[in-house]
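FAQ: What does a multi-protein file look like?

Like this. Sequence, then tokens, then the next protein.
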Amino acid sequence: MIPKELLKKVRRIHIRTLHMADDLFAGQYHSAFKGRGMEFEEVREYEPGDDVRTIDWNVTARAGRPFVKRFREERELTVMLLVDVSRSQAFGTDTQLKRELVAEACATLAFSAIRNNDKIGLIGFSDQIERYVPPKKGTSHVLRVIRELLTLTARGRGTDVAGALEYLNRVTTRRAVVFVVSDFQTSGYERAMRIARRRHDVIPITITDRREVELPSVRFIDFVDGETGEFVTVDTSHATFREEYRRRAQSIMESRRREFRRMDIDSIDLFTGRSFVEPLQRFFHARETRL
């Protein structure tokens, strides 16, 4: 039986993100992602303004007047959510944990997908594959994905983005839109991402808590790495230390963005405690204007 508190969380996310998918991202999702190609639909008589390249010369010759071919876009896509469910996702110093932000952002993307008759699938990973939910359509399927994101407890301690991408290539044979959702507090995934990029439309979504970028001046803070268990105490009262911490975090983030750009990959940065709507809208708008 599903606990009542979980049902309430799923219901809140359902109502909030369904509204966003319908009102805020209506049309943008459709424009941002191309279908698989063009499928022949019918032949009709030529009308002024039709592209002469679409003339069906065989039918035209038989009929004695020009006819053109009509095509429609094959819109059905497969959207895969590759979601980091490692222990670092339980971190959050504002009003929101990383995993809660992940659930809301992924739910919005999932509802946008099914509104466009696309399939949605999930691969939850840590340093191993924790859960695979094959792509399907429908609201009930999206609600299952949300429940998995809220409740999935990782058996592994670390994060292996490369392993998740390699698993994706084994289970997904057709081209897919792939959102890789992680804090990317790991390395060695670049080669696997380049390989996946050749087959799929890969979009990394980086999840960051503001305290991973900037520390407050509150004297001593105990830090525990959720993945390694490493423990350290730091004195945040020193302005020099806080500034060095900020510079180093910013440098890591910018280096990651540059690497994604070198791969010709669009990326999205999300922060706990902030709305994810504007970053997603910027992404969709950039895609729409470029395609």
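And here is the next protein:
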Amino acid sequence: MEMDRTVLLVDADVAKPDVANRLGVESEKGLIDVLLDEKLTLPDVLLRTDIPKLTLLPSGSKHVHSTELLASERMRQITLELSNRYPDRIVIFDSPPLLLTSESRVLAGLMGQVVLVVEEAATSQHAVKEAMSLLEANEIVGIVMNKGRRGGSGDTYGGYGYSYYPYGSDKTSSK
């Protein structure tokens, strides 16, 4: 929706990095390497993708102390650099599931906004509430539902997966 903005996608799922692979990009060094080696800079590890205006910061090398590295002063400096150096860029951190790892809790504390992704019919309401309780009260939290299934006989508009069900039916509008 932000046609004039560039996006930097940071693969901060350091335990199971997959963003570079999904985008078909080869990466050797990334975020963890920058945290470990102060001589390595962000421009050294940023990768262009074949998607216009999308740049990737891969997760980099695996490290036994990744949580500590993500909680370090160096990481705080890197997040500040990302937000200050590129004020017109949208920076998105992809992190592991909040309830499964400590890395995502550490990262949430460094972010300006947090988006919680939940899977339809798989993520329980209890799990959503527990995840929300782990986030700081001052963080702006949005929730996105993914893997939604379209069902029923509603009218579909323009192939966008938007279904409309008349008032009084047992179905609701969904996107």
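Q: Is there any per-entry metadata?
A: Some entries carry free-text notes. For the entry above: The domain at 6-111 is CATH 3.40.50.300 (Rossmann fold).
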